Amino acid sequence: MVFKLLEKLPLRTVLIVPFVLQIVGAVGLVGYLSFRNGQKAVNNLASQLMSEVSARVEQNLQIYVATPHQINQSKLDAVKLGLLNMEDLSAWEQYLWRQVQLYPYINFTSIGNKNGEYRTGEKLSNGSLMINMSGRSTGLDFYSYNTNNTGDRTTVATVVKSFDIRQHPSYQNAANAGKPTWSSVYISFLEPTLIISALQPVYENDQLEGVLITALRLDHIGQFLNSLKVGKSGQAFIMERNGTLLATSTSEKPFRTRSNNKELFKAEESVDATTQATAKYVASHFQKLKEIKASYTLNFPIEGKPQFVKVLPFQDGKGLDWLIVVVVPEADFTAEIDANTRMTIWLCLAALGVAVVIGIFTSRWVTNPIWRLNTAAKNLAKGEWNQTLEIQRKDELGELGKAFNSMAQQLQHSFENLENRVEERTAELAVAKDKAEVANQAKSTFLANMSHELRSPLNAILGFSQLMTRSQTLSREDQENMNIISSSGEHLLTLINNVLDLSKIEAGRTTLNPKKIDIYRLLCDVEDMFQLKADDKKLQLVFDRSPDVPQYVETDELKLRQVLINLLNNALKFTDEGGVSVKISKQAESESSPMLEKSKKIKNRQIKDVQDSELALYKNANFASPIPLDDSIYAPDSVPVNSSLFLHFEVADTGKGISQEELDNLFEPFVQTQTGKDSQEGTGLGLPISRKFVELMGGEMSVSSSVGQGTVFKFDIQVIVVESAEFENKRLTSHVIALEPNQHPYRILIVDDKPLNRQLLIKILNPLGFQLKEAINGQEAIEIWDSWEPHLIWMDMRMPVMDGYEATKHIKGTVKGQATAIIALTASVLEEERAVILSAGCDAFMRKPFREAEIFDAMHKHIGVRYIYENTKEVNVLKTNNGDFEVLTVDAFNGLPQQLVAELKLAILNIDLDLIDSSIAQISLQNPLLASAIANCIENFDYDRVLNLISETKYHE
Fold first, then answer.
1. pLDDT at 467
2. CB contact set of 338 (below 8 Å; sequence gap of 6+)
3. Which residues have a Cβ under 8 Å from the Cβ of 817 and sit 6 or more positions away?
4. Can you tell me the distance from the alpha carbon of 189 to that of 176, in angstroms, rounded to the nearest whole number?
5. Structure-model confidence comparison of residues 873 and 200, the more confident one
6. How many CB atoms lie within 10 A of CB 204?
């Protein structure tokens, strides 16, 4: 593997890279080891620094907290020596006043006896000396006095009401402890400072005589912490076991004022980000702060920056239980290491650069002649024939250079003529390409114009035929004539659609519209559609579906149906005896690229002649009944859902066949075989369109035939297996005869430049009582809409002056226009035209020619019009009250003309409501009772009953 990789690398790279990798590896290893040793040094230094700082804090705290108890001890000694007594406290004032001056970090020293008398000597932070007292003489109110230089009271500074020292927590704590202890931390009455008091109970004959109190100022501890140098930006703070902040090396005070009340707060609530983050980390790390019994060194990040933390418990044996926390950023120690690391990186890069430069010069010296030869060879391969090498060497490379120069001259002479010929041919192809693009554009323009010009007149022909068919005054002969006109119009529409389909295919405008379908149902519908025609010609029609064909697939149903219809039409048309068979099977699945691999198989498939034995089978076979829809009869093999596979179709007939000379041009547009020309039917478009549709669905169509023996068409399509199909439930409805009452008048604007198209819509809508107006172009439509405000506009899209697109954009671009529904009427057959029309602002899209029912349904959907429908008189289709006479019988159908029965069956299979109504109307002229019974079955969706009776008639034999 390594050698194969080296073979692909340039020689220059092979010479440079190993040398450079050695330099980078050596320097990188040295840098890494240096960095690791630096990290260890940082950790050791941080640990030493934090240990030193925490030790100094602990040492000074021992001194601070020992002093208050020493002061209390001196006062206790004075009592025991009889110098001072616990009953008369007036003598204590001068003593306490002088004592408080001796210690700068003592806030006050005091005494309280069992009678409620209390005396204090206090020194404020500004240096003022105060004497405080309370007792019976003050009514148990607390008085703070200013003093003169001799310690005498002068003026009252502060008065605190209802102060009984015996009720104070400090007095009670000392009494409960029975030994020297500490009060809780609190805030002074006289000034904003945090203090804690050392307590000494005084007993005589085991009776509590009073309590000696000395208060320590905690702000002096904060000043001491601030004086410490903890790295460059580190800090230290002290907190209680419950997390309350007592002192910090920052400028933050350990209490806050809220609503004129001063309150302590927890370190986690500190405004200093480092203090807050450190306290939160310590609390989360230990869960319970009371469980910290020894010192710990921790690491944690603040905003991604590593921090060293030292946590040390502090206890004095008299009740104090604090935590000393020291935090130092790692960056304070790593600055020099980072500088060294950067220097190492720069040295590494410099060494790399030097190595690269040396390697480049060395490789150039070695590979330059080879590189020049390689470059010249590549240029020669690109067609640069004037390549020569000047290598002033007499070694192997020199000889190679001479041989190369000789070869280049020979190639130059050989390709000069070829290059001239290629340039001439390229110019010809460019001209041909321009002509093809112009022709393609002309074809697209022709397609759009022909679609509009052909389908618009057909819209009038078919529309007025529908209106006249509904007339009750037409004679039977006129009714038949109208049916011939309508049928001929539908046939003409089919021919036009074929021409336009072919034009769309050749212009590359045809798209695939796949959906989930039930292919079993599709095959049954196609079989039923052609069964009657086969019966008329005394031919056998059989559909043979393989059991492994999945029932539900995703493909373009309309195109597949059209292909089958075209092939079966031709097969039945050119077959006089024998029959037609359709075989459907599943091809093997392709896992990697189904469409590509299958297409290759289809292209490589050789066309084989139909064997005589197979043709004999078609002529003499005992054909089966129609394909059942029961899944239990044809249960396909298990096929994974959403898997891709190919379905193979074969349509074979025992007809006249096609000669080998005609097979080559069989799929050319407008080309017919000799048999087709003799029949004087068809346009020669069915097979070309079918083949293009099959190719669009991922397959290919082939044909094999023998004259006098028959023809076999084979094609494959790619499908995706799905769980279920999407069915369009088409409902049979009667003719609209009026509007439901209690509806407001509907204003309808009809916009079309063709008078016949406007007249058709007017004749459809005017009898129902709609208020109608006409416009012949978009500009006139805007003017009428602005003044009349119609509820709905039928808008033709191709008009002079202003087309429907611009008119729709103008109307829908206003607030008022949003209340008007606009439905586009177009003769275009291009599928992409729908998206263009809807993007212009139209609410719906309808192609010409349209059905009357489509007009009414669209108006109901978009503006809520409600209709009254023509009711068909109910007929008892089973039995009358007078006997067992049945209206719907096989004999009744046998009494009708064969063509009329065939039209009724085809209309029901295609769910063509207009054709069903037309057929029933013709039947009513011969047998009104039968026509009424059929109409009642249609109204109750009992199609199977009618179809079953038709299948039992003499026409179905």
1. 65
2. none
3. 785, 810, 811
4. 24
5. 200
6. 11
Q: For the beta carbon of residue 332, count every other beta carbon within 10 angstroms.
A: 18
Strand duo 771-775 + 747-751: pairing: parallel
Spatial neighbors of 43 by CB under 8 A, at least 6 apart, are none
Q: Which residues pair with 198 in a beta bridge?
A: 182, 214
- Look-up of token digits 């912490």: 225
Output the six-digit token pair for 250.
Answer: 């920052």
Q: Which residues of 157-172 are buried (b: 16+ CB within 10 A; e: fewer)?
A: beeeeebebbebebbe
Percent of all residues in the chain with a pLDDT value above 70, rounded to a whole number: 76
Say whether pLDDT at 636 is over 60.
no
What sign has the CA pseudo-torsion 905, 906, 912, 918?
Answer: negative
Whether the pLDDT of residue 808 is over 90: the answer is yes
Q: How far is residue 278 from each of residues 249, 303, 702, measured CA to CA in Å?
A: 14, 12, 83
A 10 A CB-CB count for 936 gives 18
Spell out the long-range contacts of 261-268 with Cβ–Cβ below 8 A and sequence spacing 24 or more: 262/187, 262/192, 264/185, 264/187, 264/194, 266/239, 266/242, 267/237, 267/239, 267/243, 267/325, 268/243
pLDDT (0 to 100) of residue 54: 84
Q: Which of 195-199, 361-365, 935-939 has the highest mean pLDDT?
A: 195-199
Q: Which 3-state string (H, E, C) describes 104-127?
A: CCEEEEEEEECCCCEEEEEECCCC
DSSP conformational letter for 266: B
Contact 142, 132 (CB under 8 A): yes
- The mean pLDDT value of the chain amounts to 79
Output the six-digit token pair for 454: 């052909």
pLDDT in tens, 579-628: 999 999 987 544 334 444 444 443 344 333 333 333 333 333 333 333 33
Contact in structure between 845 and 826 (CB atoms under 8 Å): yes
> Taking each helix axis from N to C terminus, what angle separates 476-506 and 686-696, rounded to the nearest 10 degrees?
50
Whole-angstrom Cα distance, residue 847 to residue 870?
A: 26
Out of 183-197, 603-617, 699-713, least confident range: 603-617
Going from the C-alpha of 667 to that of each of 654, 702, 715, the distances in angstroms are 20, 10, 13
- For the chain, first and last CA: distance in Å? 77
- Please write the tens of the pLDDT for every residue from 144-160: 999 999 889 999 989 99
User: And the tokens for 763?
Assistant: 């004749």
**Over residues 480-487, mean pLDDT:** 68
* Cα separation, 351 vs 355, whole angstroms: 6
Q: Which two tokens stand for residue 619?
A: 């002529």
pLDDT (0 to 100) of residue 635: 38
What is the per-residue pLDDT for 783? 94
CB atoms within 10 A of CB 475: 9
Nearest to 132 by CA among 113, 107, 153: 153
Amino acid at residue number 169: P
Answer whether 781's CB lies under 8 Å from 759's CB.
no
Exposure class string for 126-146: b at 16+ Cβ within 10 A, else e: eeebbbbbbbeeeebebbbbe
DSSP output for 183-220: PPPEE-SSSS-EEEEEEEEEEETTEEEEEEEEEEETHH
pLDDT (0 to 100) of residue 461: 72
CA distance 393 to 406: 17
Q: Which residues contact 761 (CB under 8 A, 6 or more apart)?
A: 750, 752, 794, 855
Residue 651 tokens read as: 């349509």
Positive or negative torsion for Cα 843, 847, 848, 851: negative
pLDDT of the residue at 898: 84
Residue ranges of alpha helices (H) inside 684-828 are: 686-696, 755-765, 778-788, 804-812
Token output for 947: 């179809």
